[in-house]
């Protein structure tokens, strides 16, 4: 099973990297760009867990290590692999 | 007074701290390897600056789970004095021993400079050897030093006098122009509620050897000696 995890800054936390990329895209002529949020993408390979167990375990991994709950939120999907 | 300096893979100010505590101030000082599981008796533990675990994921995030950190958390919860400098400050925040977080500098640049900071509270074991309002010139060297906390946390810090250092100009004026990294209210260093744990971005250990005329950093270590 493969957990695909996105970690992003919470609303209201200044995303300076996103802002810099936003400006760069505008400078390149992409004037339609209204906002950019930068985050992290993490893939975690899991073995021997049911879907429900994997959900619990991955949530725990996010809370303990992968995201900093003070400024970041997370979401993930679980893909079963061949 | 017995001091311990924790060495993580990637620590790089551990030797500077050791040099100041042992050679300059003559204190009994020992290394603490990150893989150790138990802690001897110490009066001060320093989490030094550097890039523990390469700053992977977030600065301090992996160091939090080093084997030694369990004993250090216990030590801190029992009132042991703990000083986190730069990356050490980041680790203290990741561990939840201090509130808030340090984010990427607002300029996105790594800042290496010597800046004035104003001492905001002289009633802590880390600052008692100076007086409130005095200005220290201390080096900073970081990419992730922008202090951030939610409104309630910030209010709590202010209400409990937990801010110990703020970036300022050479006369001690705190304003946004003197804020090198975009920290909320120019915060450069804080303590916990019981004032036994201190984290700061400036490096007092790099400004404490009399081989160099400025020894402002000694204030922090002399305060700790005074209060031991």
Outline the structure in words.
The complex is a heterodimer of chains A (82) and B (228). Helix content of chain A is 34%, strand content 28%. With 82 residues, chain A is an alpha+beta fold. Chain A has a single domain (2-79), classed as Mth169, Chain: A, CATH 3.30.1280.10. Chain A starts with a strand and ends with a strand. With 228 residues, chain B is an alpha/beta fold. Chain B has one domain: Rossmann fold (3-Layer(aba) Sandwich). Helix content of chain B is 22%, strand content 25%. Chain B is built from five helices and eleven strands. In chain B, the strands form two sheets. A nine-stranded mixed beta sheet of chain B has the order 2-1-3-4-11-10-9-6-7, sandwiched between helices. A two-stranded antiparallel ribbon of chain B has the order 5-8. In chain B, strand 10 (187-191) and strand 11 (197-200) form a beta hairpin. The longest helix of chain B has 11 residues, at 14-24. Classes of the chains: A alpha+beta (82), B alpha/beta (228). Chain A binds chain B through residues 13-14, 16-17, 20, 40, 65-66, 68, 70-71, and chain B through 57-58, 61-62, 65, 93-94, 100-101, 103-104, 106, 108, 148-150, 182.
Task: Provide a concise account of the structure shown.
The complex is a heterodimer of chains A (82) and B (228). Chain A has 82 residues and is an alpha+beta fold.
């Amino acid at each position: 099973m493969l957990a695909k995890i996105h970690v992003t800054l919470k609303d209201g936390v200044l995303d300076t990297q996103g802002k810099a990329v936003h400006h760069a895209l505008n400078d390149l002529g992409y004037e339609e760009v209204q906002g950019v949020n930068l985050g992290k993408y993490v893939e975690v390979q899991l073995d021997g867990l049911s879907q429900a167990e994997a959900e619990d375990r991955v949530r725990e991994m996010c809370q303990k290590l992968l995201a900093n709950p003070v400024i970041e939120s997370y979401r993930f999907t679980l893909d079963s692999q061949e | 007074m017995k001091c311990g300096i924790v060495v993580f893979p990637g620590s790089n100010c551990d030797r500077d701290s050791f040099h100041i505590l042992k050679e300059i101030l003559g204190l009994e000082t020992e290394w603490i390897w990150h893989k150790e599981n138990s802690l001897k008796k110490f009066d001060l533990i320093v989490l030094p600056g550097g890039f523990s675990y390469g700053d992977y994921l977030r600065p301090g995030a992996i160091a939090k789970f080093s084997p030694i950190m369990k004993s250090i958390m216990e030590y801190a919860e029992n009132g042991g004095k703990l000083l986190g400098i730069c990356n050490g400050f980041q680790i203290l925040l990741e561990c939840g021993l201090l509130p808030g977080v340090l984010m990427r500098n607002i300029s996105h640049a790594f800042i290496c400079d010597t800046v004035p900071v104003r001492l905001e509270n002289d009633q802590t074991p880390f600052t008692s050897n100076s007086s409130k309002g005095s200005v220290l010139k201390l080096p900073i060297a970081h990419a992730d030093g922008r202090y951030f906390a939610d409104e309630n946390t910030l209010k709590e810090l202010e209400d409990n006098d937990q801010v110990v250092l703020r970036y300022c100009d050479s006369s001690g004026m705190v304003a946004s122009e003197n804020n090198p990294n975009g920290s909320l209210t120019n915060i450069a260093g804080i303590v916990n509620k019981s004032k036994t744990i201190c984290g700061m971005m400036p490096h007092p250990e790099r400004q404490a050897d009399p081989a160099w005329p400025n020894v402002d950093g000694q204030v922090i270590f002399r305060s700790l000696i005074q209060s031991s």
